[in-house]
Amino acid sequence: MRFFRAYTTFNRDFAGVVAALAGAFLVSSTLSRDSTDPDPDCGDRSYTIALDVFLAAVDEFYDVEGKLKIAHRQLAQSLLKAVDNFYRPQHLSPGKQAGKLGEEYISKIRHGYRWNQVYDEGDLFFALGFHVASELLADLEFRTIDTVLATTHPALARLIHERCREGRES
Predict the structure, then answer these.
(1) Alpha-carbon distance 25 to 161, whole Å?
(2) Which residues lie below 8 Å from residue 5, measured CB to CB, with a gap of 6+?
(3) Residue 151: is its pLDDT beyond 90?
(4) What residues are paired with 127 via a beta bridge?
């Protein structure tokens, strides 16, 4: 349960920090210029980077492939509820919050995205690299959790898959 609580906490801020990163790229018009366009107002290409990052933020709230309006945070919460309900008798109260470990994750995510900071060029590109790495790892992360649950807790995995197909949260 501690893992799933920490995982749910870990997913809390991604949508916000990704959207903030998109905005930071959009307003930093000196970083991406088309050198072949002599007009400085028309040569700005910062929106191209911002658009790609912003689409990742949209993905945090909307499953484009399945056309479902569901946040990744909501999916993590649903997973936690399913695991908690599966292993905990109904008359017992839910477990503790993720606590210090979860807050450490959030602090590292905010730092990696350079959230709520005045960006310089180095910070923006560091945050962009952190974002790209996060996106690449997210797919692996979901597949790994699914594989581990299917292998070690098949009844729970079946229940989660059924609820996902039905669109139920817990």
Answers:
(1) 38
(2) 80, 95, 96, 97, 98, 102
(3) yes
(4) none
Q: Give pLDDT tens digits for 77-127.
A: 888 888 888 877 654 455 555 566 677 878 888 888 888 776 788 888 899
pTM comes to: 0.73
Domain chopping of the chain, boundaries: 2-166
Distant-in-sequence, close-in-space partners of 98: CB < 8 Å, separation ≥ 6:
2, 5, 6, 8, 9, 10, 105
Using alpha carbons, list the distances in angstroms from residue 47 to 27, 29, 43, 53, 146. 8, 8, 11, 10, 36
